[in-house]
Amino acid sequence: MARSDNWRINRSSIMAVEGAQLLKALRKVAGAVGLPKEYTIKFMSEKVGANIDFTKKEVVVGAGRLLTEAPLPADKMDVLVGLTLHEVGHYMVDTHRVMVGISSMHRLLFREFCNIGEDVVVESYVRSNPNLADYDKALCNWATMPVREAKGNKLLELWIEYGLVHKVNYEKMDKLPQEMKDAMGQLVALTGWLRRVPFWPERCAAYLKYWEQLEELITNPPELVEPEMAKQDGGSRQEPKGSESGSESQYSDTPEDSDDKKNGEDGTGEQDSSGENGTKGETEKTDDGDKVDDNDSASSGSGESGQDMGETEAVDDTLDRPLAPNEDDAISGKLAKEIENALETEQEDVTDEVLEMLDKAWVGYNIHKQFPVIRSRETKTPLIKPDQLLRKKLERILTIRKRLQARTMHGERYGRIDKRHLHRVVTDQKVFSLRYKFPDGFPDTKILLDLSGSMCGREADEVLEAAGALQSVVNAEVWCYYKSNNGIVKLIRVDDGKLIHQCVSDGGTPSGLAILGVSVGMKNGGLIVHLTDGQHNVGQSPWLAHWALKKRGVNLVNLVWGNQYMTKYYDLDGMNVRRLHGLAEFPDALYGILVEQSKLGNLVKR
């Protein structure tokens, strides 16, 4: 079972919303392992480079090959978390300091040598935490599948196969020249030491030391003498099989490898550097059966020259290093912009929660997914100032409510005292014991506005004024809703402090889905004030939503605005409806709402 399936929430079938929710989850993961708050997580796109940009404080994750469906399956989510942990791990082990320390000293091929070593360090760092090891293993399994088998005369490829891919073809290793065997022994020792995650100055010194000893073999690899080995290299280059490794153990007879096992299994990775994937400058001969794999040629900052160290011939061959960035890892610029907009407007998919509420309230009723319900926040449109006259009327009503609440509690308190001297308890208890009283404070309220295409002109302006005035005197959220042309039910939060944003009416009227969508997160005793013209025409009806809310203990009051002939969806059993001819009747309707919500209607009539 995928680990992320235990904790991930807020999935979506809309790719932009799914991408935004993934970034939120990845940022929480990165923060939990130590990434500073000023750093942010982004997906690699056509305009954004790969890896960590320390100047902009960005960690860029190449998720293009993973973000192919929405919602993202749990197994791919594990890989994405592992990829993020790997990139953050490079920050935690100071890979950037290592790359800065060697960038001005040596040729680009040496930087690739350091990249492999840093990937080994990051892998050990991530897997040292048992809670994170499974994510890195999932990443390793996914990233090493397309890696080609190492050529017998390429020392760096053999190191990648041993240290990162975790596959060793012992039959091939036995046929290597003695100088290659000795060099691999040195790299095995270096790998075992790197898995202890030493400090970055020590790693810089180690890379320089081992590079001086192995540079000749790396830049001028020996030719393969045995024809059988050459044939094997040419034919089995694309996808190595586990059976070719000869054994799952990895140089288990070396003392350095015993340290490797103590520090966990290996992983794969990437870090920030320019020119990571090229091996130009090598003056070797390639076999006839060998093909060039250029999947990693799109890494950021690549631009190696074949004239380093006096060499004049460049070989068009690249290292097939796991997780080396390529063009397939970037998402489209359009999707990146949509994800950025979804993050800015705090888009959230509540479709599953809405369907769950309907299923619980209507057992056996055929509830099926029709339209996705997306909640977001408006931030760009102008703010509306509340009508001061209407605001004063509402404040006066709330003052009356507070006085009635004080008198009710005063009478109940004195009733408890006087009952001790009563003899006719059966009759007098009804006078002094008040069963209901106003709850302390204003109820948890959300104001829901129908701003579909039918709410146009005066009606749309009046409901916005009514919502703005009420929101200015009570602590309430203001939401509007409509169905867009692409079939999405949009719930937009428009309140900003004590003001609300301007909205334009558009689309269909999914009243039932909107009522349930806005109720997500509300507790027992909450109140939804729904302002509409009564023309429901999309999705489940308000009547179904009313009973689903009643089962949860959330109260719903519908204020049908203006049109008195469009109430067939609200003139049903149990529905709480108020009909308003215009904005002038809104204060009286609010008073009736408060009285009924507190269950003191009969007492007030007396």
TrEMBL record:
Residues 228-242, 279-294 have a biased composition (Basic and acidic residues). Pfam families: DUF919. Residues 244-253 have a biased composition (Polar residues). Residues 227-328 are annotated as: Disordered. This is von Willebrand domain containing protein. It comes from viral metagenome.
